[in-house]
């Protein structure tokens, strides 16, 4: 059993927003499938860190979720800035249940215990096309991250945070998100959202005692990366 993560699948199996037109994204759906099948086992869990489907509604996203559900393992899905299909927890869970998507689980103000670690997270917020972050939005996202971490209470397992937006990018910071991470003594944070040439500005390393890592799909070569868990030391 193992825990993996990948973000930004940007699926559009029933729409017209295929990412194939962008450099590095050629044949990305098949590449994702092949890489996934080569390493993920049915007993494993994969965190999908936002921007899973381009669908604007459940109907438009259904084919994308059929694709994801059919892949091995359990999947924990958090919200990205392009997940327009996103709704209330009750509506999303009902949609999954109605369609037999029994490997899909939503991360929203909650947590999951997986392989000896506590999976927490939210969308987060930093910037959008260079515009300053809206304070109401960032306060809300910091609150959601707080709720996710607090939902785990005082359990002894390490709380590992997964976000869509990067808390650190180049010289930009999301202080409200960083404050939550520091206050709860989070040691590891994985994030997506950054693509293409922007990946060269992404922060991968230790910042104020927190290890950050970019896990957007194109940055990973559409290959989910394994998370170190108790008893598993990765090279």
TrEMBL record:
What this protein is called in its record is Metallophosphoesterase
> Residue limits of the Calcineurin-like phosphoesterase domain?
2-195
- What InterPro entries does the database record attribute to this sequence? Calcineurin-like_PHP, Metallo-depent_PP-like, Metallophosphoesterase_sf, Pesterase_CT488
Source domain of life is Bacteria
Residues in a coiled coil are none
**Species of origin:** Hydrogenoanaerobacterium saccharovorans
